[in-house]
Amino acid sequence: MSQVRMKQSRDVEAMEMMYEMESLATFPMHEPGAAQFYETLYRNMSSSLRRMGREDEAALYFLKMAEACRCHKKQLDWMDLWDLGILIANRAYQAGRWPEFYKSREIIAEALSQLRAVEPHELVLRAKVLSNLGQCYLATEEYQQAEVYYSEAYDLFASTVGKRSPLFGMQAWACGNLRFAEGRHAAALPLLGEALYVEVVADGLSVSEMMKLLDQILHSMNELRSEDSSLQVHLGPVRRALNELIEDPRWDELDKTLDLAVLNHKMALVYVVARWPEMGDRKAAEYFNLKAVSVLNDLQHTGSKEAKRWLLQAEAVHSAVLGPWSPSKREQHDFPAQN
């Protein structure tokens, strides 16, 4: 169950379960099967703590994992090296210890080499290691090398888990981040759109994750617009994601928070900036912006100055671009034209 929670990125719940398992596991390391059990438990604990940003605790559990490995292995295998490399990379990067950071990349590269040799059919795991290695090069702005690893990871995730999987979405976002960092906004937009689509079809809708993506998408759109480039040719995946979302009943069931209102407004802005010609797209923009207006109007009555500020922007956009604002339209559902 703890591993299921880890796959769902519910690391706090996973750690609670693993702390309990650790407290109940009193059998000695030398018993048959015990070393393998402790290795798996401590590896998972170290991984979850690392994702939670608790690097020092993650390091302690990694050492416990390494001690368990010594009881039944002659040397660290590729997975041990992978975990070790990521742990060193995170801590060295945060502390600015660059010789250690570069050494961590070598360790992860060695893990990848061993993985290819001993488990050539483990394509999903290979993609994960490739993605981590690409991230290490992106962190130091070595974009060409990052592209090599990121592209292979992207292709592997697409061909194994499919383009609706969170793993693919994570990698599409990573590739989009790379192109965004390079200033290649036209190339970033389709990838960010693919990542947004994965968020839209996920088991749970995350306003915070979609907000991050929309900020990047709008930034890239504005950069391209300033260059007089054609926007629409790069926005197919973004349009697909928003069109999917507008038909999802879960969208109307989310808590009416300020973040949800702002996100709706930003989604409307995507349609406005893109200038898609179909009437359905105009109606989609109206729908998102009116939803924003409705929530913001309610929130401003509670005294929220932030809501009032965003409400002025949303109403201005509606009046200037989408037509006169009407309270009677707040809950209207008009769906966009499909691609």
Number of helical regions: 15
Structural class: mainly alpha
Radius of gyration: 23 Å
- Low-confidence runs: 325-339
Main beta-sheet annotation: none
Principal-axes shape call: elongated
Please describe what this structure looks like.
There is one protein chain. By secondary structure, this protein is mainly α. It has a domain at 241-339. It is built from 15 helices and no strands. It has helices spanning 2-7, 11-24, 34-51, 55-70, 78-95, 98-118, 123-139, 143-160, 166-182, 185-201, 207-226, 236-246, 258-274, 279-300, 305-322. The longest helix has 22 residues, at 279-300. Mean pLDDT is 87; it is low at 325-339.
Notable features of this structure?
339 residues
Layout of helices and strands:
Layout: H1 2-7, H2 11-24, H3 34-51, H4 55-70, H5 78-95, H6 98-118, H7 123-139, H8 143-160, H9 166-182, H10 185-201, H11 207-226, H12 236-246, H13 258-274, H14 279-300, H15 305-322
Helix pairs in contact: 2-3, 3-4, 4-5, 5-6, 5-7, 6-7, 7-8, 8-9, 9-10, 10-11, 10-12, 11-13, 13-14, 13-15, 14-15
